[in-house]
Design goal:
It contains 2 helices and 5 strands. The strands form 2 sheets. A 3-stranded antiparallel β-sheet has the order 1-3-2, with no helix packed on it. The protein has a two-stranded antiparallel sheet with strand order 4-5. The longest helix has 9 residues. It is an alpha+beta fold and 104 residues long. The two termini are 17 Å apart.
Length: 104
């Protein structure tokens, strides 16, 4: 997969973190995150479905972590997903947890 973005063969972050974001990022409140992927937390906070388990896995993640993955809502993903940086300390920490090589 030369030239392919490393996230497309990883997905570790989507299977490691709880993803909380403002309700205003949901379709119901004028945002873009599909309602079927949202779990309410408080009046102002919601969570991506599947990320609040002991072994989290975002419900929008398709494929096999560490092999080939994709985000089913990439264009509509919430801000924590948009802000997560490939190769960051957090990225490399969860890559290591999944037995994947670190990114530079």
């Amino acid at each position: 997969m030369a030239g392919t973005h490393p996230c497309l063969s990883c997905g570790a972050c989507c299977a490691a973190f709880r993803v909380d974001f403002s309700v205003y990022e949901s379709q119901e409140h004028g945002g873009r995150v599909p309602l079927g992927l949202i779990e309410p937390v408080t009046d102002s906070l919601c969570r991506l479905r599947g990320t609040d388990y002991a072994r989290p896995r975002c419900a929008a993640l398709t494929g096999t972590v560490g092999q080939q993955v994709a985000c089913g809502i990439y264009e509509w993903r919430p801000s924590p997903c948009r802000e997560f940086a490939a190769g960051s300390d957090a990225c490399n920490r969860v890559r290591r947890q999944h037995g994947l090589a670190l990114l530079a």
